[in-house]
Amino acid sequence: MGIRSLTRTEAERRAALLTVERYDVDVDLTALPDGPEVRCVSTVTFTCHEPGAESFVDCAAEVVSATLNGTAVTPAGDGRIPLPDLAGHNVLRVESIQADTAAGGGVHRAVDPADGEVYVWMSFEPDEARFVWACFDQPDLKAVHAFTVTAPAAWAVTGNSGEAQVEELGTARRWTFPDTPPLAVYNTVVNAGPFHEIRREADGHDLGLYARRSLAEVLDRDADEIFTLTRQGLAFYGEAFAMQFPQRRYDQVFVPEFGGAMENYGCVTWSDMFLRRAAPTPAEQELFAKVLLHEMAHMWFGNIVTMRWWDDLWLNEAFAEFACHWAAERATRYTDAWAGHLVGDKLKAYLADQGPVSHPIHQPIHDVAQAASIFDNITYPKGASVLQQLMTYVGEESFRAGMAAYFARHAWGNTTLQDLTDALGKASGRDLDGWRTAWLATAGTDRFSLEADGETVTLVAAGTPRPQVLAVGAYARKGEVLERRALVRVEVTQPRTPVPGLPPADVLLINDDDLTFATARPDPTTRNVLFHTAAQLPTAISRGVAAATVWDMLTTGEATAAEAGQCITAVLAAETSDAVIEPYLTLAANIAELWAPPGEGAELTAAVARTCRDLAADSGRRQVALRGLARTAATAEDLAWLREQAGDDVDLHWRALVRAAELGGDVSSEAARLLDRDPDPDAWIRALTVRAAVPDAAAKAEVWQKLAVDRAVPVSAVGQVAAAFWRPAQDALLAPYAERYLEAVPHLHQGGMIPAMVFTSHLFPLHAVGSGYIETAQRTSDKAAPVVRNTLLERSDTVRRMLRSRTGRP
């Protein structure tokens, strides 16, 4: 019998029937140094509002014993334990074992290849705590949690609630943590291992950083920056939400073989891939800052106030994604954060919102399996942009006042969309019902253009637009650049909106300052002007708005890859904001490699390579430029120059080897020598990436086995290896793996939500396929779990657009 997914109806019934008072969870990790097992005893104290009724508790681990009020109860075999004849007050005790700590859900055992040390982490969103211990695994049954953890004596243990009492037990130690505040089960955590630890006091908070010992030097290098960002974020959110983070201790734990980061209350877990051995680029530094601030925002959006059910996931994720950009811009040195958002994730959202998986930000969610499918580009970057528009729409002062009232009223409880719109509507004096329906309950992207009739300019929507405030910028030529002469904000309520006060201009830019989530189109007479002048706009955000229009026209077949590639490469060459150089490089290289017809890709790639060589003359951009050249170098001369410039930079030498391997060079001995001298314990992944790029059948077979079958590559590195595997001009070698991908689809959900998304997306073939394959892939998705189905449909739609662009027909 399979593990059942909790339905909304079941969750509502259980929440109406039960109130959970507390969890006392005893976790035994002492078997992990030599074996896979995590043993737990979960004692759940709860009341039943209808004595005599029945319910169930979630437990997908092996149940050793289970008693309800002293009477044995028996698991049903579907990840649940029936609870018959409930009393008014109940005590449930379940002893369980989870032995699948390599590829199972909820808990993971990782071995550091540097020294053989074992580390264990837990991560439970959306409903994976049940794979570790017995619990009522739904967000609106919040309760106090008390953890007692027994671990090997040399290990440190981290949890949600701060300083633990530690008892010595000879070869082990017992860590007894204080009670947490009321938390949803998925916001709890236990991490453990022989960590390197750094602590610091800041503004009354006790801040901690943890990483595996082999990364101690990197953590030491980055600690000042991490502590600074943490202090700035806590101060900004405390002031913006009129509620300080209520716990003194705030830990951040970097662990191996983890995907992304997770916002556990008071103890954020990170992939330690964020601790980069190579000096991080400006874009990587900004990404780190935004992830840190995103997870921190969840302390309020998700932990202190939690959605009642998964249809309001956006209350967590869209708000955290919005808040991290808001905080970065206002409270840190990353003042171009919104420009980075636009050039990066927002372009993905525009594409997704015009494809087969477009959905309302807020939508009915039948069960948790469906909920796992909406951790996507609609919920995150579109949601963040919509919230930026909401703050623009009601005004920042009203927005802050509404958020303060929301947290004051609902702290430690659960909420719905209506609770939030009520708070913001009252603070702003605006009726937000129409706004809520248009933006949150309706899928799709507005599109605007301009009509000029003499001195009159009108903003024209394609269809009925959402209520929103946006700006139109007027730019006039001044030498080799454009200078903004006016910025006019208008409130859109109808398909046609006059834009008063615009002076004569060479370029009119719709959605200047990027205040809303909408695409734009130039009229036929100004189309070419947009493509040729985007690079001359004066700010990162104005250039980004123009580039977004060009990109959207490429994806909808209204511009060729040559047009888009030339425009984006020109913007790249002119860009003044360090943090967006790397995203533009990626975009330009992607257009050349994935969107251009075969006869045009080489020249577009060469243009990017020339730009990289020019940028490398600037010492502040040298590292990023050389990385870009490592992807786009097409000649032996380029590669030789790159290797010379790389000097002692091991990271750049690995990147150059990947490109040399793809171009047919024999790099096996060089890769072996580099692996020997690279101090990174994960350098084997770099060597595998080189092997993935080799145009050789044996190499492809070896890499596919490790990547897709054995899943030996950490989830955080799958994209890196897969990108080297799926290379242009290798169709004959790659064709068999396109079919193997389809065969794997029914099993891609294994291992939990994040691995499912990562493997489904990155293993999808970018080459050696045609339109017939896309149709087959989309049909195959019908047999997959929801998270796999949605990821596959989104990816296949993107590749379908690429294939159309490769034909050279706009």
TrEMBL record:
GO molecular function: alanyl aminopeptidase activity; metalloaminopeptidase activity; peptide binding; zinc ion binding
UniProt record, GO biological process: peptide catabolic process; proteolysis
Claim: Metal-binding is one of the keywords in the record: yes
Organism: Streptomyces guryensis
Lineage: Bacteria, Bacillati, Actinomycetota, Actinomycetes, Kitasatosporales
Domain Aminopeptidase N-like N-terminal: start-end pairs: 117-186
Cofactor(s) this protein cannot do without: Zn(2+)
Sequence ranges assigned to domain ERAP1-like C-terminal in this UniProt record: 508-801
EC number(s) from the headed UniProt entry: 3.4.11.2
Any one of the GO CC terms: membrane
Swiss-Prot/TrEMBL catalytic activity: Release of an N-terminal amino acid, Xaa-|-Yaa- from a peptide, amide or arylamide. Xaa is preferably Ala, but may be most amino acids including Pro (slow action). When a terminal hydrophobic residue is followed by a prolyl residue, the two may be released as an intact Xaa-Pro dipeptide
Record-given protein name: Aminopeptidase N
Source domain of life: Bacteria
